[in-house]
Every structure is written in C-alpha cells, then in structure tokens.
Design a protein that fits this description.
Layout: E1 9-11, E2 14-16, E3 20-22, H1 39-50, E4 55-62, H2 82-94, E5 98-104, E6 117-118, E7 132-133, H3 136-156, E8 160-165, H4 170-175, H5 190-207, E9 212-217, H6 228-240, E10 245-249, H7 266-276, E11 279-283, H8 289-297, E12 303-306, H9 308-312, H10 316-324
Parallel strand pairs: 3-4, 3-12, 4-5, 5-8, 6-7, 8-9, 9-10, 10-11, 11-12
Antiparallel strand pairs: 1-2
Helix pairs in contact: 1-2, 2-3, 3-5, 5-6, 6-7
The chain binds ligand FNR.
C-alpha cells in the first residue's frame, strides 16, 4: 500500500524521508547546569534516528540562561554550546534523520534562580514566582538572544529551526491577553500582542534561510483567552513573514482543565491549515499508524508529531509501517531481525 505517512515530504528544500516527527520533549538531563549536550542526549536522540523517524526535533533549548525551565535544560546561549550540538546533529544524520531544534524561553514559567521575565508581572499560579515585567531593553536583548540561538543552530548543522511560542512560555505570554496586560506597543490589540513574536521571527529570518516552524498553543481553554480563530489570523501573519509550518499544540497558558482524547488537537491543526493556507503539524495522543494516515489523507495536517509514544517505543515508525502494511528499510545492522 502507498501511504502518505511513509512518503517523503519536502519543505523549503529539505526533504524528510517520511512524515513522522519526534515532538520536542525536555529531558532535563544536562550533566551539570551548563546547558551542554551530554551522554543522555547522544543516546536518546540518535536512537530515534535508528528507529527511522523522519525528523527529530530536539527539546526546548534555552536562548538565555534565565529562560530555562529547569537548571538542567539544554541551552544555546553561548558559542560554547555549538560543538555539542554539532556532534548530536551528526549522530542523528548518520542514521538518515533530518534534524531540528526548538528555540525557547520559559518566561514566567522559568524555575531557575534569579530574576524571571514576562510581559506582565503576573505569576502562573500561587506556587510560582512573580516575574518582572520586561523593559524595552529586556525585550530587545531577548530578541537578540533568539537570533544568536538561530545562528548557533545553523553552525551546528540543524536542518530546521522551530520557535517555541506555545505552552505558556515567554512568546505565548506575549500573545495571550490573559498573560499580557502591557500598556505599550507590545500589549493591548492582537497586533500589539503579536509584535514580540513578529520581531523574533524577523530576527531569526535575518540569519536563517532554512525551514522555519513555530509551535503554538491554539487554545487557551479560557473564556477570555485566545482560540483557534485568533491563531488562524496569527498564522496568516507568520506565513507572510516566511514561516513554513505551524506545529499546533494547545493550552498551558493559564491553569485550566483540558479534556484530552486521541487526536484532540488535530481539529486545530486542520483549522489553521485551511484557514491560513499554511502547512501544519498535528500533535497530541497520536499513537497508531492508521490514525496518523487518516490525518494526512484527510488533509488535516502535513506532518505527524509523536511525543510520548516515541518515548515508549523508539522504533514506532516500524510499528506503524507494519500496521499500514508498508515495508520500510531497516538499519543495515538490524536487517536480519527487522
Ligand atoms: C513535552 N512537550 C514539550 N513540548 C514542547 O513544545 N517543547 C518541549 O520541550 C516539551 N517537553 C516535553 C517533555 C515531555 C517529557 C513530554 C511528555 C512532553 C509536549 C510534547 O512535545 C507533545 O506535544 C505532547 O506530549 C503531546 O504529544 P503526545 O505525547 O501525546 O504524542
């Protein structure tokens, strides 16, 4: 059977061998607090490349030390981080995967010591710290940090860059009126709340001409929050700025109860794909080959991001291929037992 899941996909000149993407997942596993790639990363990510994942997105990687979720997060805030990523990228590529990195800043959700930053001085909940409202120079420095991160990612050899604008981290905090109550040009109207992301995209695009993805939370799950309709409009702006794909997640902006079930975020990916005429990635409780194929065939998304199922089973592409009756090439070392 011919499937879409196992057919190649080309985006801005980069060809993935299939439509299976390893979703970015923090490992909180740096060996010290230096943000550098360690042994864990060098085993964990290349294993999924051996497992025949088409594109591996390395976890949220902090563009500033203060923008880490935890002190063991990966970082890309200095040139000293480049060589570790170079090694990691070449290990993944050796096994035929394309590589991406998610550039991130945790904003008010940072749990590191020292000052934490956000558009407005509002804590996520009563257990989390109150962030400092960013000044104009904080904003400029952070945009510069995203650009520096992109330049270093390029030097490390990544094929694709993803900007993390989801899950209530810094960029998402600017986008949502629930977390952004600024009175200046970065707050208020939808256009003003988009300004920070817009400037981050432009800054990254100055140094990066490869495929650019942005991950969004397409619903705040709150009566006064953003909905997928707002994100269709934001996606149109992103497309005009040269973003190639929207990776569509949801929630985590404010504490909210979310009813989750298989494929629960897929309708958001579908709405943005058709509403903004841009490629999308679907993610969230996608665990079977048939489910993935359904999403692609019905043109609900262009790529399938798999998170936890790839933690449980690094050879998930093989499992999905068997389910769909497709033969995929085994790594040569495993040919006798694939
Ligand atoms: C995540 N997720 C996540 N998302 C993101 O954009 N950047 C990140 O670094 C992380 N980190 C992370 C760590 C761990 C351990 C998990 C389980 C999840 C969310 C993840 O990418 C994915 O969107 C969700 O897990 C939903 O997909 P699955 O797991 O249902 O396939």
């Amino acid at each position: 059977m011919e499937t879409l899941l196992f057919s190649p996909y080309t985006i801005r000149g980069v060809t993935l061998k299939n439509r299976i993407v390893m979703s970015p997942m923090c490992m909180y596993s740096c060996e010290t607090e230096d943000g550098k790639v360690g042994n864990w990363h060098k085993i964990h990510y290349p294993t999924r490349a051996v497992g025949q994942v088409g594109l591996i997105v390395v976890e949220a990687t902090a563009v500033t030390a203060q923008g880490r979720i935890s002190s063991r997060d990966l970082g890309i805030w200095s040139d000293e981080h480049i060589s570790g990523f170079q090694e990691l990228v070449s290990l993944m590529k050796e096994h035929g995967a394309k590589t991406a990195i998610q550039l991130a800043h945790a904003g008010r959700k940072a749990e590191v010591t020292g000052e934490i930053l956000a558009p407005s001085a509002i804590a996520f909940n009563e257990r989390m710290r109150i962030p400092k409202e960013m000044t104009k120079s904080d904003i400029e420095e952070t945009i510069q940090a995203f650009q520096n991160g992109a330049r270093r990612a390029k030097e490390a050899g990544f094929d694709i860059i993803e900007i993390h604008a989801a899950h209530g981290y810094l960029i998402n905090e600017f986008l949502s009126p629930l977390t952004n109550q600024r009175q200046d040009e970065y707050g208020g109207t939808a256009e003003n709340r988009y300004r920070f992301l817009s400037e981050v995209i432009d800054a990254v695009r100055e140094v990066w001409d490869g495929p650019l993805f942005v991950r969004v939370s397409a619903s705040d799950y709150h009566p006064e929050g953003l909905t997928v309709k707002d994100y269709v409009e934001y996606a149109k702006r992103m497309k005009a700025q040269g973003v190639d794909l929207i990776d569509v997640s949801s929630g985590a902006v404010v504490p909210a109860k979310i009813n989750v079930y298989p494929g629960y975020q897929v309708p958001f990916a579908e709405a943005i794909r058709h509403g903004a005429d841009i490629a999308t990635g679907a993610v969230g409780l996608i665990t079977s080959g048939l489910q993935a194929e359904e999403i692609l065939r019905n043109e609900r998304a262009d790529l399938i991001f798999i998170g936890r199922e790839l933690l449980r089973n690094p050879y998930w592409p093989r499992t999905a291929a068997k389910e769909l009756g497709v033969e995929i090439k085994a790594p040569v070392q495993y040919e006798r037992g694939w």
